[in-house]
Design goal:
single chain, 225 residues, alpha/beta, L-arginine/glycine Amidinotransferase, Chain A, 3-stranded mixed sheet, 8 helices, 15 strands, 24% strand
Length: 225
């Protein structure tokens, strides 16, 4: 099937990446989305969609991270949430990460080849991430921004990064994640690309304010063209 890009709002908000997490296996969404929106997410990303909360909140894209090997959740997740999540995902590896930061989605970005993390992340957490995701883990900021999960979106096909990333940083990202990278924006000029983008190897959901040229760049980037 062709790589499809669909526009969406979540609770009237174009910051779709704040609320939704997806990999090539599944998507996690907060309770309260319409059946039409859930159907759109499932069809465009070609995955099963599961409703959940983390820490009782809807901010799934902020709080969880991962790749096609494992899902990382903060240790502030409730036991009920963790049990329901593990039941929904079956044999998929769900790993609880004990860190000073709960916002794992903001500080970790990964695909099947590498992971980039917040420069001050604890060394013991780096080992947990490496073992869970099965990839090399590198600490560094991008474009002077330490919350790397907000400025980098990556799949096993391509990656999009904040337009302030230097040529050297773009080359570094290509080497780490083993995919082509481009700079870009979402939601009509927003540089924090992950806030308005949910993407896997099969499709992308973008915020409703995302322009035609931004969508064209996203399609080109994540189809490896």
């Amino acid at each position: 099937m062709p790589f499809e890009v669909a526009k969406l709002q979540v609770f009237g908000n174009s910051n779709v990446g704040v609320y939704i997490y997806a990999n090539d296996r599944f998507a996690l969404v907060p309770p309260g989305l319409t059946p039409k929106d859930i159907d759109t997410i499932s069809k465009v990303l070609q995955v099963d969609v599961y409703e959940t909360t983390v820490m009782g909140t809807r901010l799934l894209g902020v709080l969880v991270a991962g790749n096609n090997n494992a899902l990382l959740v903060p240790d502030t997740i409730t036991q009920d949430e963790l049990s329901r999540l593990r039941s929904s995902l079956g044999d998929f590896n769900v790993v609880v990460v004990r860190s000073r930061s709960n916002a794992l989605g903001n500080i970790i970005v990964a695909n099947s080849h590498g992971a980039l993390v917040y420069p001050n992340l604890e060394d013991e957490v780096i080992k947990v991430i490496r073992d869970a995701l099965g990839v090399e883990v590198i600490k560094r900021s991008i474009g002077g921004i330490s919350s790397v999960g907000t400025v980098v979106a990556v799949t096993d096909v391509g990656g999009l990064v904040h337009p302030d990333a230097t040529d050297e940083e773009v080359e570094f990202l290509k080497d780490l994640f083993k995919v082509p990278f481009r700079t870009g924006t979402v939601n009509f000029g927003v540089s924090f690309v992950r806030t308005g983008l949910v993407v896997n190897s099969k499709g992308a959901i973008v915020g409703n304010d995302t322009s035609g040229p931004e969508i064209a760049r996203i399609q080109t980037t994540f189809t490896g063209l």
